[in-house]
Amino acid sequence: MNEFHKPALFAGHEFTAFRGGEDPAEVSFLAHESARALLARVREAQQPELVDRVVTFADENGIDVLAELWSTSSPHSLPGALWRMYLIRDMIVTNAENISILYGRGVEISVTPDPLVAGAPVPAGPEEMRALADRILRGAFEGDFADALHRSAAFCRVLAHGCTSMADDAELINPERATALTTQAFRLSKTAAEFSVCARLHRDGSLA
Questions:
Q1: For 159-193, what is each residue's pLDDT tens digit?
Q2: Residue 111: exposed, middle, or buried by beta-carbon count in 10 A (0-12, 13-18, 19+)?
Q3: Which residues have CB under 8 Å from 72's CB, separation 6+?
Q4: Which of 19, 108, 136, 139 could, after both became Cys, cross-link 143 (CB 3.0–4.6 A)?
Q5: How far apart are CA 9 and CA 30, in angstroms?
Q6: How many CB atoms lie within 10 A of CB 10?
Q7: Do 20 and 72 touch, CB atoms closer than 8 A?
Q8: How far apart are the first and last CA of the chain?
């Protein structure tokens, strides 16, 4: 299995090379190996163009490749954390206009430092949301990984507040939308909590 310790620079076909069999132990092994290898190789290379390729990987190759690698991993693991960071970025990139509206509402009602931690400008339109998504994910490969996780958590909490507030507005006139927004808020809050746990584990040196 030595090839999993020395990956190439992660073009689409190089990610797919990590796909394994259906054995749960092998799937878990490949998930952790690929996440560690990706993070280590990009950090060691210190090449901005490589970070660009990794950040935008899902845009060019689809999120499904990463899902096959990491989506079944524990949320409190390195592959689980990376999967959620890519998933959040994909959500923003593919629905930036709606996300910017929900995030703006969240900023309006927030009584915590989360908007500052997340780092989006105010007001933040679709382009600002896309830029924020890229900056947060880039931080995982260029900056302090725990800080990137904290920013991800803060972003999810602000967005969850926005979803909850908009759900309240829609409850009487559009119950289905209110239910969908409430569900989204719950999932975002759960993801934020998972990011926070991962950040703490990383600080302790036990995120694997």
A1: 999 999 999 999 999 999 999 999 999 999 999 99
A2: exposed
A3: 27, 31
A4: 139
A5: 17
A6: 20
A7: no
A8: 18
Tokens coding 134: 């890229």
Domain limits, the chain: 2-203
What's the confidence (pLDDT) of residue 24? 80
Tokens 């060691």 locate to 44
Burial class (CB in 10 A: 0-12, 13-18, 19+), 131: middle
DSSP structural state of residue 11: -
Average pLDDT, the chain: 89
* Residue found under tokens 């970070």: 51
122 — pLDDT class (breaks 50, 70, 90): confident
In one-letter notation, the amino acid at residue 59 is D
Share of the chain above pLDDT 90, in %: 80
Other C-beta atoms within 10 Å of 11: how many? Answer: 13
Distances (CA, A) of 119 to 113, 131, 134, 136, 154: 10, 10, 12, 9, 9
Alpha helices in the chain (DSSP H): 12-16, 24-45, 48-55, 57-61, 64-70, 78-94, 96-109, 114-118, 126-142, 145-170, 175-203
